[in-house]
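INFO worker-7 received task bundle
INFO bundle size: 2
INFO processing item 0
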Amino acid sequence: MIGIAIFIVGLVLNIHSDSVLFKLRKSTDRGYSIPYGGVYRWVSSPNYLGELLEWLGWALATFSLAGLCFFIYSAANLAPRAVSNHKWYRRNFENYPVTRKRLIPYCF
């Protein structure tokens, strides 16, 4: 049951984070800008965090080797991408929030 709950939290987070990016893209003519709102308050890549929570929830819900492998594979791909995204934002925006973490709120 906990796995399903984590999966749903990740799904909602992923959808909401993508929605913030979509609205941001529609509202600016300048190209790139800093996303705000939702979990973007704390991390640079909340959509990646949402996807990782989905796979973690799936792994716990199915209690399978395949689920665990999908989670590990996704983490191995998304964590470095989150680091790259965070560096890009900090390099391209002087006013980028300094308290924002890469992928995990208050931690990483």
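INFO item 0 finished
INFO processing item 1
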Amino acid sequence: MPQNNVPTIDRDQLIDIVRNLVSIPSVTGDEKQVMDHVAAFFDKVGIDYVVSANDPKRPNVIATIGNGNGPTIAMNGHLDTVPISDPDRWNTDPLTGVLSEDGKRIFGRGSADMKGAVGVMLYTMLALKDEPLNGKLQVHVVSDEERGADFGTKHILSEIESGRLDRPDYVLIGESSQLKVRNAERGIFGFNVRFIGRASHTAAARVTGINAIAMAARGILALEGDIDKEHPAVGKPVISVNMISGGVVSNVVPGECTITVDRRTIPGETDQTVLAEVRAQLDAVK
């Protein structure tokens, strides 16, 4: 691919592309509207694309430019976001894409993770679409990154393996990395832990009751904290207890409590080794 004659960047156009993406709500599971917007963008600028989905409500858009006489480079980015937990705590409308006064930041849900990067990818396709690329440049705009990628990148990989989509020679993933090149990523291992106590009336809490929420609290404190290991490419593993469910009414000692744990793994760890560590930590506070 050519390294000279790079088109001048139209900063205002790039900002508009990103802000338009930010303005469309796309919480994981509800990505169709933003993906339709991406498809309309490619229609407008005359770039070929295909839509690939194992759920029509959660599509992925794959666009391609270039002549194919060389390697294929694919840029991969997701447009699903986590929910807006408390809109009142935002200083700006999270679905507006507000440009900061100095023009260096865009504030809005997904601007950093990762609509900003996808906007750059869309602009790159637009800027290079008429250049004589000896090869192909693709962008894989995907759904479902935040919750496991079954409807997004994993689906794309299965389509590539089956031959229904072309296999790229190189893939650039635009997740935030402080502009450092990284060739690895932490894995995801999620699990639930159920604590079994003994239900009773509050009046008998210290006689016959065993409070499962109190048991869970000890377990949470045992699990939460820094993990003393590290990998040079991805840093340390992370564990976070992110959900808790227990109790039925206010005057009954809870007999059960379940916590949901998100564990990010590093190369060399397996589900089995992580579970062994978790069991040891929980056994220590029984």
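INFO item 1 finished
INFO post-check item 1: The longest strand covers residues 187-196.
INFO post-check item 1: The helical segments are 11-22, 32-45, 111-128, 153-162, 212-223, 271-283.
INFO worker-7 idle
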